[in-house]
Amino acid sequence: MITPERIREALGTVKYPGFSRDIVSFGLIKDIRIAGTDVTVQMSLTTNDPKIPQAIKENTEAALRSVPGVGSVTARIDILAPSQPSAGGAPQAATQIEGVKHVIAVASGKGGVGKSTVAANLAVALHQSGAQVGLCDCDMYGPSMGIMFGAHERPSADQETNRISPVERHGVRLMSMGLLIDDASPAILRGPMVTKYTQQFLRWVEWGQLDFLILDLPPGTGDIQLTIVQTVALAGALIVTTPQEVALIDARKASTMFQKVNVPVLGLIENMSHFLCPSDGKRYDIFGSGGGQREAARLNVPLLGQIPIDIPTREGGDRGLPVTVADPASPVSAAFASVARHLRETLHA
């Protein structure tokens, strides 16, 4: 006997293209209708890539045909946010954040490449260039921006509107889960709650008028990344990597994810590119050399910067004073300033 439970179980084997989670857990299934041996599944999907619903439809119908006793199958998909090109080239949908001109995602395929350090110092560098900047820490499980900016106060909320006022540090408006919980308290959240908090950080924070909102994404290609690319009109993404091959492999995955959903990759940033010995100025390629340049060429995107590794950058992040604030004239700060200039030129901001 064909039951909705058996149909839903079969649908649970269909993965969302480019992700490890299935279409059921992502909440795409809206209705299942069974008429004798015929099955119709109604889905709702937000995407700017026509290839994604087509792939889901084909994979869904194939999964349904594998259920014993099923006759004809039909998968219907409602597209909630069709693609509309914007002046900046990013998909234009009813998902822009009020008052924000350009939303830029800073992403990496793996942890440990210094993505949050890049996001923090890039935000400061953009502010130093004269832009109004916000920074949203989208890593709900491992938030670090509160520490990196030396912010310890709690964000306030308006009692009437429930909108949250971000904390401002070093000229950057900041929101992070780390500002809402104690340092020793873990954020124990299931997928739906992660999605909820991500949307609240983006939609219910009073960002004001911003030229740039930088999103520090968690590593990988999971729930938070999918939520953002499906619901926010991104100006583009920056991919952070180190020169070593193990990091470059995962950087490719992150880049491919954005390409699949029609989000332009603005460029690649090679962090921890090299070490300059302070005593003699000799360069040491600790993690190898040329990896970022080769990968940028492979992805056909610009290599925006090669950020050196040094002790002051690490110390600045630990004490809440980004190196771009502590030492604006350092080689690391100069590299971030160059990336900021390139972004403003690219986005005409």
Proportion of strand residues: 15-25%
| Overall pLDDT level | 84
CATH architecture of the largest domain: 3-Layer(aba) Sandwich
- Between the first and last Cα atoms, what is the distance in angstroms? 60 Å
Uncertain runs: 82-94
Shape: globular
What topology, given as strand order, has the largest sheet? 8-9-5-10-4-11-12-15
What is the third-level CATH name, the topology of the largest domain?
Answer: Rossmann fold
CATH homology group of the largest domain? P-loop containing nucleotide triphosphate hydrolases
Structure annotation, total helices? 11
Reported for the largest beta sheet, the result is: 8 strands, mixed
Task: Explain what the structure shows.
By secondary structure, this protein is of the alpha/beta class. The protein folds into two domains: 4-79, Fe-S cluster assembly (FSCA) (GMP Synthetase, Chain A, domain 3); 100-347, Rossmann fold (3-Layer(aba) Sandwich), CATH 3.40.50. Helices cover 34% and strands 21% of the residues. The protein contains eleven helices and 15 strands. It has helices at 4-11, 51-65, 115-128, 145-148, 191-203, 223-231, 245-260, 291-299, 311-318, 323-326, 331-347; strands at residues 29-35, 38-45, 73-79, 100-107, 133-137, 156-157, 164-165, 167-169, 172-176, 210-216, 236-241, 265-270, 275-276, 283-284, 303-306. The strands form four sheets. The protein has an eight-stranded mixed β-sheet with strand order 8-9-5-10-4-11-12-15, sandwiched between helices. β2, α2 (51-65) and β3 (73-79) form a beta-alpha-beta unit. α5 (191-203) packs across α6 (223-231) and α7 packs parallel to α8 (291-299). Mean pLDDT is 84; it is low at 82-94.
